[in-house]
């Protein structure tokens, strides 16, 4: 649920899963990123009161609600992932999100993906570095064009190249 400054509910979405919800306010995009626990998806909720209308579905049958716009303000855009989000980091520009995704199978190494949220597509994939701390959020170094993952033993962090070199 999103509330106004005075605490009044503005918008509600039913959550089929239980557990904590991760949230990230992203001022560069004027949006809120939400990762419901146990769900293999990520939501971007627009906080811009002047956001353009959003179209969900196909654009050919208005009788079935396809092609009918919803207001852009507080609209939820779903991004389907391979598993629930364990941790994430966002760049300041508002385009790249580095996500650590839990594997659906027990004992599997987490997935590392870089998402371009403008296109809602995977922009990069990295193999899970051995010794990296599972569940720890990556740190994006925009000046160097890399992201860092903490090491479980406290050794040097693991480097993920984005636009630069490690």
Structure write-up:
This protein has 166 residues and is mainly beta. It has two domains: 1-80, no CATH class; 83-166. The chain contains no helices and 15 strands. It has strands spanning 2-3, 9-11, 21-26, 31-36, 41-46, 54-55, 69-70, 76-80, 85-90, 96-101, 111-116, 121-126, 139-141, 146-149, 158-161. The strands form five sheets. Strands 3-4-5-8 form a four-stranded antiparallel β-sheet, with no helix packed on it. The protein has a four-stranded antiparallel β-sheet with strand order 9-10-11-12, with no helix packed on it. The protein has a three-stranded antiparallel β-sheet with strand order 13-14-15, with no helix packed on it. The termini are far apart.
Name some characteristics of this structure.
single chain; 166 residues; mainly beta; 2 domains; four-stranded antiparallel sheet
Largest sheet: 4 strands, antiparallel
Count of individual helical segments: 0
Overall pLDDT:
82
Instruction: Give unreliable regions as ranges.
Output: none
Question: What is the multimeric organization of the chains shown?
Answer: single chain
How helical, in percent, are the residues? under 10%
Distance between the termini: 40 Å
Structural domain count: 2
Strand content of the residues, in percent? 35-45%
- Gyration radius, in Å: 18 Å
Class per helix and strand makeup: mainly beta
Widest sheet: strand order?
3-4-5-8
| Basic shape | elongated
Total strand segments = 15
H/E series: EEEEEEEEEEEEEEE
């Amino acid at each position: 649920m999103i509330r106004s400054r005075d605490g009044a509910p503005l918008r509600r979405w039913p959550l089929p899963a239980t557990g904590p919800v991760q949230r990230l306010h992203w001022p560069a995009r004027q949006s809120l990123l939400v990762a419901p626990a146990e769900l293999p998806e990520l939501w971007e909720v627009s906080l811009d009161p002047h956001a353009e209308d959003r179209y969900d579905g196909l654009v050919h049958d208005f009788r079935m609600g396809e092609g009918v716009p919803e207001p852009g303000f507080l609209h939820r855009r779903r991004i389907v992932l391979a598993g629930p989000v364990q941790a994430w980091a966002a760049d300041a520009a508002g385009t790249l999100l580095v996500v650590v995704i839990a594997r659906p199978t027990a004992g599997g190494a987490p997935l590392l993906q870089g998402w371009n949220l403008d296109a809602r597509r995977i922009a990069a994939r990295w193999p899970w570095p051995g010794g990296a701390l599972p569940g720890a959020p990556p740190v994006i170094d925009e000046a160097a064009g890399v992201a860092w993952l903490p090491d479980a033993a406290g050794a040097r962090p693991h480097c993920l190249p984005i636009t630069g070199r490690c």
